[in-house]
């Protein structure tokens, strides 16, 4: 997973468990940008990424993202959320303060007082937000946690001038220009959606219909939980979570792609996210979780 190594080791100590999800190499500072390849060295996909990157950094900012103690995240709302509803924060399931959920485990409505550093468009921390509970968390089929906060969207906007990011309620499409916005590193990564993975397997965990990035999105430790934002709409289409670091197959740090026939593909250096369009149907009046709601397909406890 794309979280700092020290945080992963702490989470494992809490979880006390065998196989761990992938851990990025320890990082102490944001790395310097790599030298630009020549035109001859670029693939067609990389040239498309380069064309998409410039407007992305102008259109997408860090406003509404949050920094966790070990990961990134964002303040999100759904298309039917009201300004008076308690605000929500989206991050990864493996970013939970209580450790990694086991395969098959789903956590709902568990008390939490976790804090989040709210960032403005320039990446400056402008407030500390606090959770009231973990509304939903799992690493089964997807890798996501949604916290409910003690304050409303209206209060956040009126106090700090920052609006929540809206989660798209439809499946994204391949070729979409996206930006991964990391509140932990205060950094933006721009590329396109290369395609979708039938099953993404890493250690003991398996995720369905994962987003695969083109190679321009070289996310690093600490970017776990970052919102993946459609550059054209500004809406969240996925949550950043992992990547294959060493070229190994289906192991910790090295997720593999599994197709419908069971064929396995390894793409070293390629990173992935989990789609979020499933969530709006499962949160109803007052942003409360209802896993029995019509159209809700999230894993249940």
Please describe what this structure looks like.
The chain is mainly beta and 301 residues long. Helix content is 12%, strand content 35%. The protein contains 3 helices and 16 strands. The chain has helices at residues 5-15, 44-59, 153-160; strands at 65-67, 72-77, 86-91, 106-111, 115-119, 125-138, 144-152, 165-166, 177-182, 187-202, 205-213, 227-230, 236-243, 256-258, 264-265, 271-275. The strands form 2 sheets. It has a 6-stranded antiparallel β-barrel. Strands 9-10-11-16-13-12 form a 6-stranded antiparallel barrel. The protein is globular.
Taking the alpha carbons of the first and last residues, their distance comes to: 23 Å
The number of helices is 3
Q: What does the average pLDDT come to?
A: 87
User: Mind describing the biggest β-sheet?
Assistant: 6 strands, antiparallel, barrel
Q: Using the CA coordinates, give the radius of gyration.
A: 18 Å
- Helical proportion, percent range: 10-25%
Proportion of beta-strand residues = 25-35%
Structural class: mainly beta
Instruction: Report the strand count.
Output: 16
Strand order of the largest sheet: 1-2-3-7-6-5
- String of helices and strands: HHEEEEEEEHEEEEEEEEE
Question: What low-confidence regions span 5 or more consecutive residues with pLDDT below 50?
Answer: 5-44, 47-58
